[in-house]
Design a protein that fits this description.
Length: 305
């Protein structure tokens, strides 16, 4: 596995750490989630597992050519981080939908030690302690949601389709319906994923985002000041989309998901946005674009204490 460089900006919310019991296993955490005191979480890197080749080493996919026993061991290590076993994990079944599933103890182990009995689920929510929610990534955006008032959590997978259809807002709505969660109470983290500079999209995708996210200079300014203060105020014009000479666009999924949560009523100071790109750091993180599809899956894990 080649060396990777974590290119971080100035926001300082996304921290790279190492597991205490397995010093080879590195992962990202967010201060705001930790400060709620009710949830444990991490977003994995490639480091600290047993997989080989294109999926080296901490791969969480059974469908990308890896040996089953390797993936089993990787899940065992992830669960051990929480003091749990693989039978406590519940996995998503991602197909770029906005479907969100409420998870209970009856679902424990699904996707790891038990087969999934559901399909097309890109978001998971629960208010039961000791269940490890798990979603998977290789450029798409992980969304962590923690409600310290109603003691509930949500974890969603948001690619461009999920983002333009606002799965973050839909996850919050599901948590409100099931648990009474209010947007103004939650802490949200937008975890490492592909950055605007690496993410080129077609004109039709750009048009869909322009319709879904009408221009808002105030919100763009708040985002740039809070998370990317090194950028100029003139960058507000290109905060969501930047047009290229070839007629295509560079899309900012980080800002789009920030907008989803702000528009849903989450206060600015309760949203944390990554400044770590999967595609810029292929030695540290799996990236579908950087590897041209030859890769494993990263994992986002979230558990209510």
């Amino acid at each position: 596995m080649s060396e990777g460089i974590v290119r971080q900006g100035s926001n300082g919310t996304c921290r790279l750490e190492f597991d205490k019991s397995n010093r080879e296993m590195s992962y990202f955490t967010f201060r705001g989630i930790d400060r709620t005191g009710i949830a444990e979480h991490f977003f994995s890197t490639r480091a600290g597992g047993v997989s080989e080749g294109d999926t080296a080493t901490l791969n969480f996919s059974y469908t990308r050519g890896d040996k089953k026993e390797n993936v089993d061991e990787n899940f065992r290590r992830a669960a051990a981080h929480f003091g749990k076993c693989p039978g406590d994990i519940v996995c998503s079944q991602q197909t770029h939908t906005t479907n969100v599933r409420r998870v209970t103890a009856a679902d424990k182990g699904k996707g790891v030690v038990r087969p999934l009995d559901y399909t097309d689920v890109d978001g998971l929510i629960t208010n039961e302690r000791g269940i490890i929610l798990a979603t998977f990534f290789a450029d798409c955006v992980p969304l962590f949601i923690v409600d310290p008032v109603q003691r509930a959590i949500g974890l969603s997978h948001s690619g461009w389709r999920g983002t333009v259809r606002k799965i973050g807002q839909i996850t919050l709505e599901c948590m409100n319906r099931e648990f009474g969660t209010r947007a103004e109470d939650v802490r949200v983290a937008i975890a490492p994923s592909i950055c605007q500079g690496c993410y080129e999209v077609s004109e039709d995708v750009a048009a869909a985002f322009e319709r879904a996210f009408p221009k808002n200079d105030d919100m763009a300014a708040q985002y740039l000041v809070r998370y990317h203060e090194s950028l100029l105020r003139s960058d507000m014009e290109n905060c969501l989309l930047s047009k290229k000479e070839n007629g295509k666009y560079q899309l900012n999924l980080w800002y789009a998901n920030y907008r989803v949560f702000r528009d849903a009523g989450v206060p600015d100071e309760q949203i944390e946005v990554t400044d770590v790109c999967t595609c810029c750091n292929p030695g540290l993180l799996f990236s579908h674009r950087a590897s041209r599809g030859r890769r494993g899956n990263l994992g986002a894990f979230l558990m209510l204490k």
